Request: fold
Amino acid sequence: MKIFTVRHGQTHWNIERRLQGSNDIPLDETGIAQAKSLGTRLAGEKVDIIYSSDLLRAAKTAEAINAHHNATIITTPMLREANFGIYEGRYIEEIAHEINWDHPDGGESTESKFKRIHGFLDEVVAANHENIIIVAHHGSIKAAICYFLGLPMSERRKFDVGNTAIHCFERTSNGKFTMTLENDTSHLIAD
Reply:
C-alpha cells in the first residue's frame, strides 16, 4: 500500500497569513498553477482512489491531480482543517498571543481533529486500495503524518507541510508505514 498526502494549493489567505480553518477559500491564481504542477508531478504514479477534503481549495487540487488519472474522487468533511472558531479569518500575527491552538474558543480541539482524521484513516487503510492520494490541509496532514508513523499528537510540530507538498507513506511487510517522501515541493521549482 502506497499513500500520498498532499496539501491544497495556495489561496490569497495563505499569502495574507489569515487563518482559514473551515472557511471555504478558493485557490488563487498561483494555487491553480501549483495544483497543475502537482498533477503533472504525480502523473506517472498509479492511482486507485483519491480522497479529498470537501473544501474548495482541496477539491480543486484533487481535480488537478485527477486530470492525469481516471480515479474516483471521494470528497469528505472528515479531511477538513480544524474549525478555529472565533479566530477564523483573522491575521495569524494578530491572534498569535491570544489563541490556544489546542483549544480555540468556539472551535475544534486538536485532540478532536486527530480523532476525526485518525478514524477516517482507519477506514481508508481497511479499504485496502493499493495506491491512494489524500488531499487535505496543513493540520489535517500533520495528523495523518502522526497516524502513519505512530507518533503522538505532540510530535506534529516537527513536520512542515507547504502548499502542494507531497508526503508519501508505504506499508512494509510488518504492516507498519514508513515515510518515503517528506514535504516535497520540487514540482514548484521553476527551471
Notes: The CA atoms of residues 102 and 111 lie 7 Å apart. The domain at 2-188 is CATH 3.40.50.1240 (Rossmann fold). The longest strand covers residues 177-184.
